[in-house]
Amino acid sequence: MTTGLHPGGQPQDPRPTGNQALPQQERVGHGIPHADNRTRSAVITARAAASFDPVGRSVATARSFVRDTLQGWGFADIVDDAVVLTSELVTNAVVHAGTSADVLCLRSDEGVRIEVADRYPEREIPLQATAVNMGSPDREGGRGLQLCAALAGRWGVDYSPTHKQVWFHLDLPDRPVGTRTAGPALPADLLPLADGRVRVAVIQIDRVGAISAWNEDAEDLFGYAAEQVIGKPLTDLAAWPHTPGTSTGIVEALQLSRWEGTYGLRGASGRVTPVYASHLRVRDTGGEPSTVCLLVRDHERAVLQTPLRASATDTTTSSEGQATDPFEVFIGSPAPDDLDGLLQRTVERARDMLDGDSAFLLLATDDETELEVRASTGLPSARQRFARVPVEAGPGRYGSARMPAVHEDLTVVPGAVPLLAGTGMRSVVTVPLKVEGRLTGSLGVAAEGPARYSNEEALRLQFAADRIALAVESARLGELERLRRGSLSFLVEASDLLAGTLDRDQTLALMAQMTVPTLATWCAVYTIADQASDPYLSYVLHEDEERIDGLKALLSKIAPPDPVPTPGARVWAAPGEAAHQAALRTSMRSLGLGAPASVTSGIGTTLATAAAVGGETVVLPLVARNRVIGMLTLGKPSDEHFRQEILELAEDLSRRAALALDNARLYSERTAISQSLQRSLLPPDLPHIDGVEVEVIYRAAGEGNEVGGDFYDLFPIRDGVYGFAIGDVCGTGPEAAAVTGLARHALRLLAREGFGGPAVLERLNSAILDEGARSRFLTLLYGELWPQEDGSAMLKVVCAGHPLPLRLRQDGTVEAAAEPQPLLGVMEDLELYEQTITLDPGDVLLCVTDGVTERREGTRMLGDDGLTDVLTTCTGLTAGAVAARIMRAVERFASDAPSDDMAILAMRVPGLQRD
């Protein structure tokens, strides 16, 4: 929860997060006088108020409210005293009195006044309370007033018929002119270490969050020239939530009147730079608000950081008779569900408490065999985050993290704390975090100098660790529960998406898009066609689209991972090593060794790609039906590590993705086979017939079907004679297509053997009946075509149970061109005959299947009459135009997709061409 005045006196909209007690806050602008009998002469310039419910967690929320309010006002010097006093007074109200508490913070030119009121006025308050005489120390409520007397410049108690109010006033300490706070002189070896010139980036952000100023140090730190970033939102550069350490989002932080903290900015090379920032809200003479940000590298935070005022050894006693120390007050600030914020603020407080150069906190995995780095300060946090070390090889005494330990000089025992290898830290103190005797984590503080810590510091750190262990474990369990619920939701959604497609390429794309950026920064999918084939790089995806090509080029130059069927993720070092070597070669060329412009122009791209692949890379096998069909490769940038929970989720996803990918492969294979077989049932290209126009339109019902129960054919029998057929097998789909193939090939064979139309159909009827249970009814129109020299055409047709062919004359009349006869596949003995038709120039013969005439829309059917009506409008059209108009009319007759196969065969005699 944040508080403070918005520049210009406008109130901010407080939005508590998580499970915090919900304070009802009030904010009033500058210049409002507060009339009371103690500060009449002081002018109140700002105020902030909140109400807290009578529950235990309200105490921590009240502490956070006061801390954030005073820090927002720039009164960090008195924050600790104010928080301790508020904690005691709110505890008295919500815990002991059992009523809600109202907290009011007032800012004036003299200091800060804080009032805590409850709704229990009959409660007895000692009237002669002083710092030395408060009655028995066991008296309930006496401790809070003792603290007021000891820490506050003025304090008192007010009564009303409905409220009791305890107030205290804290004066601002005197500050030397020109300094923010006064600090003692330090020996040179204790001064903060800066490697080279300290760069302070000065960035100004306007009221909408866009960058309006960017100095030279910002260019040096992040690699962007001013013209590249001016006008862009700062959030485009911020690496939230990749850099851990704050519970406040950057948007919320920029809205505070005053803020200090750590976050990460992504530079031009793609690498995240941890920075320590100090933000101050200002307004110009026109009242326009903006934010000035000062940023330094995180390990140089001493340049900007406000020093702690309270000594780490200062402890007081609460009204409950327990010790209250600044460490407890500090860790009570984050929201209960903000584990990262809690851990990061914990390590920062631990480092400051022991005056260290760095600190780190590790949490135990579920099986308590490994420790996972979850927060650090003063160390390369991006590189260390989620790194894992075995518990028994941890930094504790006797080689186990279960015991506290002090290492005076790590150069003597360089492997004692693997986490600190190569960081320059020499002395370290570590203590375990335990809950009910069970190891839950480890907390450590390190310094660059040797022999900085002793058993006394270990006891102080262990005391602090014991105080926070339960809060950390509670937040960790809450995070695990949210992760499990999120994992289930993620896997359900992934299963639905993968099950929704049988296309191989789309399945590969879905696999990658579900992992990036949810599980990893980049992803590559390798596929294996068969056991004799090598893995093939099939798909690459990066969260930054501009790096996909570079990543693909890098991966294509290294050997793919071995297709090991062992389940689980395994580390693959080849991409990181290749990226490192590429970066080294590029750096050598960039030193000015005569490299051409074409080489130097790609240096930035190469370095960015190397940074993008510089983290941990893991490979998960894609196993389906006891066969490795590929590998799923996940990567992190900048030496980041994967969390164990993420790897387990990725393993579950890989199993589902492997089955979906194999199903897509099988479907593609079977579709290809089916399509190949179906195409073999279709006739080849239609022959060209001199003096006759021919057009065919064919539509098979059902998705993926190219051939159904309807069929057509047009083929040469001998010189000047052509056979044609259009038929309909009972049913649709593959079974009907099988009879289609039999009929079409039998017609061609029998016709070319010289049989006439009736003989051809009689023999085909016998062949269909010989199929036994697989036989099906068949309606067939078969004919032979003789183009004539006078421009006409003679046809001999047999219509065996098929819709009658229609003849369109030049005058627009339509008539049936044949008589109906028995269909095939029913009776053994058929007596069929052929009829002769002469098509004059300009005449059209239209042959269709019943899928055309039986087209339905509700109770309406197109029928023979509807088809005749459409055909009468086709006078003078070519055969192709006639067929197209008929098909258009059929499609428009009903809105639903056709449920039956359709075939249309149109033949037209155009007549002789005259000069």
From TrEMBL:
<dbReference type="InterPro" id="IPR003594">
    <property type="entry name" value="HATPase_dom"/>
</dbReference>
<dbReference type="InterPro" id="IPR036457">
    <property type="entry name" value="PPM-type-like_dom_sf"/>
</dbReference>
<dbReference type="Pfam" id="PF07228">
    <property type="entry name" value="SpoIIE"/>
</dbReference>
<dbReference type="Pfam" id="PF13581">
    <property type="entry name" value="HATPase_c_2"/>
</dbReference>
<dbReference type="InterPro" id="IPR036890">
    <property type="entry name" value="HATPase_C_sf"/>
</dbReference>
<dbReference type="Pfam" id="PF01590">
    <property type="entry name" value="GAF"/>
</dbReference>
<dbReference type="InterPro" id="IPR052016">
    <property type="entry name" value="Bact_Sigma-Reg"/>
</dbReference>
<dbReference type="Pfam" id="PF00989">
    <property type="entry name" value="PAS"/>
</dbReference>
<feature type="region of interest" description="Disordered">
    <location>
        <begin position="1"/>
        <end position="23"/>
    </location>
</feature>
<dbReference type="GO" id="GO:0016791">
    <property type="term" value="F:phosphatase activity"/>
</dbReference>
<feature type="domain" description="PAS">
    <location>
        <begin position="202"/>
        <end position="232"/>
    </location>
</feature>
<dbReference type="InterPro" id="IPR000014">
    <property type="entry name" value="PAS"/>
</dbReference>
<dbReference type="InterPro" id="IPR029016">
    <property type="entry name" value="GAF-like_dom_sf"/>
</dbReference>
<keyword id="KW-0378">Hydrolase</keyword>
<dbReference type="Pfam" id="PF13492">
    <property type="entry name" value="GAF_3"/>
</dbReference>
<protein>
    <recommendedName>
        <fullName>PAS domain-containing protein</fullName>
    </recommendedName>
</protein>
<dbReference type="InterPro" id="IPR035965">
    <property type="entry name" value="PAS-like_dom_sf"/>
</dbReference>
<dbReference type="InterPro" id="IPR001932">
    <property type="entry name" value="PPM-type_phosphatase-like_dom"/>
</dbReference>
<dbReference type="InterPro" id="IPR013767">
    <property type="entry name" value="PAS_fold"/>
</dbReference>
<dbReference type="GO" id="GO:0006355">
    <property type="term" value="P:regulation of DNA-templated transcription"/>
</dbReference>
<dbReference type="InterPro" id="IPR003018">
    <property type="entry name" value="GAF"/>
</dbReference>
